[in-house]
Amino acid sequence: AQSVTQLGSHVSVSEGALVLLRCNYSSSVPPYLFWYVQYPNKGLQLLLKYTSAATLVKGINGFEAEFKKSETSFHLTKPSAHMSDAAEYFCAVRAGGKLIFGQGTELSVKP
Amino acid sequence: ETGVTQTPRHLVMGMTNKKSLKCEQHLGHNAMYWYKQSAKKPLELMFVYNFKEQTENNSVPSRFSPECPNSSHLFLHLHTLQPEDSALYLCASSPLKGQNNNEQFFGPGTRLTVL
Q1: Does the beta-carbon distance from B109 to A51 stay under 8 Å?
Q2: DSSP secondary-structure letter at B84?
Q3: Which of B42, B102, B111 has its CB closest to that of A94?
């Protein structure tokens, strides 16, 4: 069965620092993987997705993620954090027409 | 905006009340979903509708009753809820075919408080 695990329920970085949010997946078939962002009091917004094309996927707001099959990982990165990046981030894997979400990682950005 | 709207955005109800949540999508999608998001918990998929037919019910208590009259509208009827049902209820939609058939588009959610 497909599943995702997000390492760290809370990550704090300084403005301008590298953002790294970790996601590992489990899938018996080639996975479709997603990162969503949720700002306070909002719904989820798609950041980027991997659908078996390029392993390095670029998304909105300067985020990108790299699919590494050997490590079963799909970590989300951004070279330089901005205050507006503070939000909750969810990794998800498609499974049988549904999305299975990780537990989420809350990103805080310090001035 | 994602093209998925939800009303109301906030709802406070007593345990004996009956209320309904509404979701509408303007994207021409054929699949719609209800999720429950509680504090410190992963998103829980509640119901899935494909072409107006319910295809999944994840052991949701009967006090939650979904309705999908057409591919653009989805309702969640609530009655005799419990305080632990307080949560953010998210609606999503997706196309069933085509390049973006894996992606779900989410509404802003309804923040439900049960007293």
Answers
A1: no
A2: G
A3: B102
